[in-house]
Structure to design on (384 residues):
């Protein structure tokens, strides 16, 4: 099998890989860039595995005029910036000891050692600069073609090496597995049995995985499996999965791009600021959506007060949580309301002798009357 991806011909990438070859070292693209390249999907990161030690990687790269950053030098990783493109270069390695969060590794010169310590068979694929794909364990290509997500060798051992792999199992299933084939039974059972290990992970890592999962085209089956296996209880305590598939359907009807925070608001559960360590921006938006759902505000009020995008998110969430059909008239009303301008301004009320808190309260009251009128009341009507 041969990989044909645009990034293979990037000048910096070609020069960097050629440097390894001229130095007598093996170097292969690995993981997501190979997997996504074979699936004709976008690639965000270029990872390379090599038999060269980190010091040798640094020496070779700098000799070629590239910038190096020791991003994970203790674990064998050096980031090389070649013609503006980052490449994460990691020495072949094998785990010596793990605690479920961090691993003690030993460098190796065997690609099979490196492949065995990876998580899923479809991620243990390698490719050389010419695009020729290597499958050291003999399972990755078959599983990728079949859209079958499986842990490498013993699922329990892979999970104990890093408990984040439980969450990755469900995320990767949402993106790469055959939705009609269900989950690998052995892998799902191991995730259920070892779900307590999630409690020892940093909440930032858990939040990052959950956010990535909820950005998938349709994460509902994976999230439902997380709930049924007991995993979701550890990732997001108190979450309720019933509204998520309804929301995903409504998003599709509206042609909306997946929004993980919108979907998180459908799940609810423990405060995401604590449970998932969301960014301040995402925490605020989550709170705004949940508040909007509970406020009972009309579509017109939501559109005018919050803008079209947020109002539509709230209306979709409300329909999903209440198991109601989407009211397109409300969507149209919110969209119309978002571009309206109230005919009464603060200056008008200042001229009328109002100031301070009384001015603000009166302006809000007049705006509410104007919104309730369907935006038809004129300034004179409101100021009367």
């Amino acid at each position: 099998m041969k990989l044909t991806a645009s990034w293979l011909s990037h000048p910096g990438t070609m020069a960097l890989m050629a440097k390894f070859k001229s130095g007598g070292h093996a170097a292969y693209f690995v993981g997501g860039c190979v997997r996504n390249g074979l699936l004709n999907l976008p690639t965000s990161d270029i990872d390379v595995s090599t038999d060269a030690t980190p010091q040798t990687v640094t020496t070779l790269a700098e000799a070629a005029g590239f910038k190096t950053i020791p991003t994970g030098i203790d674990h064998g990783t050096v980031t090389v910036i070649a013609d503006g493109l980052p490449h994460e270069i990691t020495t072949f390695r094998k785990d010596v000891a793990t605690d479920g969060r961090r691993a003690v590794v030993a460098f190796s010169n065997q690609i099979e050692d490196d492949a065995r310590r990876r998580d899923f068979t479809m991620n243990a694929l390698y490719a050389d600069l010419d695009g020729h794909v290597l499958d050291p364990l003999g399972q990755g290509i078959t599983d990728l073609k079949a859209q079958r997500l499986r842990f490498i060798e013993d699922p329990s051992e892979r999970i104990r090496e890093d408990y984040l792999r439980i969450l990755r199992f469900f995320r990767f299933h949402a993106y790469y597995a055959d939705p009609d084939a269900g989950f690998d039974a052995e892998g799902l059972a191991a995730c259920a049995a070892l779900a307590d290990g999630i409690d020892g992970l940093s909440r930032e890592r858990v939040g990052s995985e959950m956010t990535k999962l909820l950005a998938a085209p349709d994460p509902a089956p994976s999230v439902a499996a997380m709930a049924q296996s007991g995993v979701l209880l550890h990732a997001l305590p108190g979450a309720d999965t019933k509204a998520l598939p309804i929301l995903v359907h409504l998003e599709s009807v509206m042609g909306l791009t997946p929004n993980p925070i919108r979907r998180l608001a459908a799940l609810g559960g423990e405060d995401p600021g604590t449970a998932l360590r969301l960014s301040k921006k995402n925490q605020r938006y989550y709170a705004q959506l949940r508040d909007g759902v509970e406020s009972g505000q009309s579509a017109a009020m939501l559109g005018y007060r919050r803008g079209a995008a947020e109002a539509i998110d709230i209306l979709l969430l409300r329909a999903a949580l209440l198991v109601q059909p989407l009211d397109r008239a409300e969507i149209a009303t919110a969209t119309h309301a978002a571009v309206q301008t109230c005919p009464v301004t603060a200056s008008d009320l200042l001229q009328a002798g109002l100031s301070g808190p009384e001015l603000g309260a009166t302006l809000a009251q007049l705006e509410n009357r104007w919104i309730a009128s369907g935006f038809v009341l004129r300034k004179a009507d409101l100021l009367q």
